[in-house]
Amino acid sequence: MKNTKGKIKVTLIILLVLLSVFLIFLSALLIRTYTFSAAGNQDRSSFDTVVAGFAANFSKTERTRLLDNLKGALRIPTVNRGATDFDSSSLEEFGNFLPKVFPTVFSSNLVQHEIIANYSHLFTVRGSNDSLQPYMLIAHLDVVPALEEEWDVPPFSAEERDGYLYGRGAMDDKASLMGILQALEFLLKRGYKPCRSFYIGIGHDEEVGGNNGARNIATVLQSRGIKLSFLLDEGSFILSGIVPGLNKNAAIIATSEKGFATISLSVSVDTGHSSMPPKETSIGILAAAVSKLEKNPMPRMFGQGPERGLFEHLSPQLRFPLNMVMANLWLFSPIVSRMMEKKPSTNSLVRTTTAVTEFYAGIKIKAIRVFYAPCPGLITAVSKSRDRKCYKYKLGLCIANTDTRHYLKLTKQLYRFIPMILKQEDLTRIHGVNERISIKNYEEIVEFYFRLLQNSDLSSLPPSHISSCNL
Ligand SMILES: [Zn+2]
């Protein structure tokens, strides 16, 4: 009897110890969860000092003009199919179109315009204070092809429907290109004189690698000994309803992008007549290789790049228990990454992806090409905000490639962001069918650049909140 009582006592003590350990563990998770909340809320105060000189307040005429100008840009089919397969007359037409719609930019004595590599554009806008390091905004004028029969409206008609403007390039990347120049046009018209010099680079072959446009623009700037304080390119968006468990919009600034590698695998075997085939044909060997590639994805690396900071910073905005999960990725990242790898769109955030893109067969040498999009390294930059009453900006990873990679020698402060609102249904429109932008959102984009140009004149930029990323 005594023995049984003793056993119960020991079991109870063990249970109590286990419960205490569990409670301590749970408290640690909760403390971390709500520490992130506090850090997240500090962000806004950093930007109180940012004040724009000229208010945007676009007039009705200006709103009509900015929309007409974007329509004009969308109607020029600047399609790029390959380094040597592009429509040069459209690229030239686009070059002739710009001075027509931005006459103030092209006639201002503060602005120097150069054509680079025949079709790309470099604008140098001279600031009054030489001691301030210049910055650069970049965009591209070329677009990917569009099959008219798949679209609801002709892809180069710039048709307006239900508050949206449809057209190839509406999202990638003419809204950004036109938005930047439109903002500068409006500012110069209002008598704006920048303090800090800046550059605007418009590449003509981003969709096929940017090796003529962006690369040559960067080379020109390098040859002039230019170093930039920061560079802003396309690459990420304001995500609306895309992040699971997040009801608010999230403005994501990509500070890193995935790289890529193309690898060819080829098999050469002794030829023979198909009536007397070898035991293993070259097609069979290659097919086995493809199957192996698909069955053996690269390891999960979720939580080791900038995506970790992104999810941790979003955690205060998420519902319980998702906020606890995201604030404690040190513990939960294996579970989160297993869930994310189920969808192709989120799988690309988890690992280096592999895609077999070409298969040559039926000739003497059989070959396949494999495209790898590797995961990038660590977070490299800090985020900035345009307006404390608007979105809180988060750092993220761009899963596509941009022209930014050609500018790496000019600055380490690389940001990829357009304040374009992207919903789940829009994800397939980029490089897909029925690409469109809402007219209201385009006005906001022009306003964003209008503010950004002025805010960049501040002699000291708001302090970084990188430390709160590293909690
Ligand atoms: Zn693009």
From TrEMBL:
SUPFAM superfamilies cross-referenced by the UniProt entry: Zn-dependent exopeptidases
Pfam families on file: Peptidase_M20
Pathway(s) where this gene product acts: Amino-acid metabolism; Lipid metabolism; fatty acid metabolism
Signal peptide start and end residues: none
Xref: Gene3D superfamilies: 1.10.150.900, Zn peptidases
Annotated catalysed reactions: N-(9Z-octadecenoyl)-L-asparagine + H2O = L-asparagine + (9Z)-octadecenoate; (5Z,8Z,11Z,14Z)-eicosatetraenoate + L-phenylalanine = N-(5Z,8Z,11Z,14Z-eicosatetraenoyl)-L-phenylalanine + H2O; N-hexadecanoyl-L-phenylalanine + H2O = hexadecanoate + L-phenylalanine; N-(4Z,7Z,10Z,13Z,16Z,19Z-docosahexaenoyl)-L-phenylalanine + H2O = (4Z,7Z,10Z,13Z,16Z,19Z)-docosahexaenoate + L-phenylalanine
Alphabetically ordered keywords of this record: Hydrolase, Membrane, Metal-binding, Protease, Transmembrane, Transmembrane helix, Zinc
Cross-referenced InterPro entries: Pept_M20A, Peptidase_M20
Keyword NAD: no
GO CC annotation terms, alphabetical: extracellular region
Single GO molecular function: peptidase activity
GO biological process, one term: adaptive thermogenesis
Family classification: Belongs to the peptidase M20A family.
Function: Secreted enzyme that regulates the endogenous N-fatty acyl amino acid (NAAs) tissue and circulating levels by functioning as a bidirectional NAA synthase/hydrolase. It condenses free fatty acids and free amino acids to generate NAAs and bidirectionally catalyzes the reverse hydrolysis reaction. Some of these NAAs stimulate oxidative metabolism via mitochondrial uncoupling, increasing energy expenditure in a UPC1-independent manner. Thereby, this secreted protein may indirectly regulate whole body energy expenditure.
UniProt-listed PANTHER family: N-FATTY-ACYL-AMINO ACID SYNTHASE/HYDROLASE PM20D1 (PTHR45962), N-FATTY-ACYL-AMINO ACID SYNTHASE_HYDROLASE PM20D1 (PTHR45962:SF1)
Protein name per the record: Uncharacterized protein
